[in-house]
Design brief:
The protein is mostly helical and 184 residues long. The chain contains 5 helices and 2 strands, in the order E-H-H-H-H-H-E. The chain has one domain. 66% of the residues lie in helices and 3% in strands. It starts with 6 loop residues before the first strand and ends with a strand. Keywords: Membrane, Transmembrane, Transmembrane helix. It comes from Streptomyces nigrescens. The chain crosses the membrane at residues 12-35, 76-102, 114-134. This is DUF2165 domain-containing protein.
Length: 184
């Protein structure tokens, strides 16, 4: 072995495979959620209606002014959620494909990281801001025994957060984020 550093390309690293796998898992999950909401529209439509109407909360008069009782607005919110889920799923599917191509080609992982980040942040916005903050606190979903999605939202935030951390670990997208290299 010489004293000089040489660089050779390697086909993948554990971190890039982990980032690709986690991105793929989240993509599959949110795609199935969106598919379920589209094909079984009524089930979660009722969930959204009850949360927004606040009709299964403690009905504290100081909070009930926040309730949205218009079915049109409730359904518009639900359609918005489904559209966001679908867009998030498509973004994460593209990110998964970019990870696979980047690992195979040994470059282009920076783009995979960028698209993964966008999709994972979209998921965090939906479940963190949308369900935990707005649904849980603003619409007092935590008070409902029947229509409380905080536990499921927390699982989603946790999964997306862990995936986002792995995607951003040093080396997940290779040194300088462009290709996978190792020093000999």
């Amino acid at each position: 072995m010489s004293d000089k550093s040489s660089t050779r390309r390697i086909p993948h690293t554990g971190l890039s495979l982990a980032a690709a796998t986690l991105t793929g898992i989240v993509a599959l999950y949110i795609a199935l959620v969106a598919f379920g909401n589209i094909t079984d529209f009524g089930t979660n439509q009722q969930f959204v209606r009850h949360v927004l109407a606040m009709d299964t909360t403690f009905k504290d008069p100081d909070l009930m002014g926040r309730a949205i009782t218009s079915r049109t607005l409730q359904d518009a919110a639900y359609l918005g959620i489904i559209a966001w889920e679908t867009l998030t799923a498509l973004t994460l599917i593209v990110a998964t494909a970019l990870w696979a191509l980047g690992i195979r080609r040994r470059n282009g992982l920076a783009r995979a990281r960028l698209v993964s980040t966008a999709g994972l942040l979209m998921l965090l916005l939906l479940f963190g801001a949308g369900f935990l903050a707005i649904g849980g606190e603003w619409f007092a979903m935590w008070q409902s025994e029947a229509w409380n999605g905080l536990e499921a939202a927390t699982r989603n935030v946790t999964l997306a957060g862990i995936a986002l951390l792995v995607v951003h670990l040093p080396g997940a997208a290779g040194p300088s984020g462009e290709s996978l290299r190792t020093e000999e």
